[in-house]
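Render this sequence as a predicted structure.
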Amino acid sequence: MTELQPKPKPDSIDPVLWSRLQAEAKSPFRGLRQFVYASCAASGAIGGVVFFFKLLAGRDLQTTVPNLGVQIGVVALMVWLWRIDRPKT
């Protein structure tokens, strides 16, 4: 299969705007995805802190340990997704 060649830049468009449009066409909604990753990671980190201190206090260990594991998993997943979504330079 042949790869599509990018169209030449029209003369009437600002070069900065043209480069931003090309970047958005290559990876649509990257900013939105990164916002979701950061929001979920922050939520998981806050939950992790809460469950960590419940674990230190020794309260309700049968549910605290699995919940702490879930929060750590959420943060790890969001970091991994953020890293694979970085622009390839």
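Summary. The chain is about 70% helix and 0% strand. The helical segments are 15-26, 30-57, 61-84.
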